[in-house]
From TrEMBL:
GO biological process: xenobiotic detoxification by transmembrane export across the plasma membrane
Name assigned to this protein: Guanidinium exporter
Keywords annotated in UniProt: Cell membrane, Membrane, Transmembrane, Transmembrane helix, Transport
Recorded name of the encoding gene: sugE
Family statement drawn from the similarity comment of this UniProt entry: Belongs to the drug/metabolite transporter (DMT) superfamily. Small multidrug resistance (SMR) (TC 2.A.7.1) family. Gdx/SugE subfamily.
Primary subcellular site in the record, as a coarse category: membrane
Biological source species: Pseudogemmobacter humi
Aminoacyl-tRNA synthetase is among the record's keywords: no
Length: 104
């Protein structure tokens, strides 16, 4: 169950990062509210996952999901730059996540 909590927490990190971008510096109430709720839920689920998973594993996976997810949303939804170097960086993060999962 801890891994499910962790994956959902990582997905919510992507949600709050994207909604924070949409909030334009917390000037839009709807997007700001989504940001805050998603942040709280993400941290709560991360905390629940950490009951069973080591700190290093849980935090690395959580931030990795958020980083790669935010990168993907930026490219696909927001039209941010898409380059070979950025793809290689994302693949390296994913490789690190796989290794972290295997090692635990």
């Amino acid at each position: 169950m801890a891994w499910i909590f962790l994956i959902v927490a990582g997905a919510l990190e992507v949600v709050w990062a994207y909604s924070m971008k949409l909030s334009e510096g917390f000037s839009k109430p709807g997007a700001s509210a989504v940001t805050i709720v998603a942040m709280i839920a993400s941290f709560a689920l991360l905390s629940m996952a950490m009951r069973q998973l080591p700190l290093g594993t849980a935090y690395t996976i959580w931030t990795g999901i958020g980083a790669v997810g935010a990168f993907a949303v930026g490219v696909v939804v927001l039209g941010e730059p898409f380059s070979v170097m950025r793809i290689i960086a994302a693949v390296m993060i994913i490789g690190g996540l796989v290794l972290m999962k295997i090692s635990s």
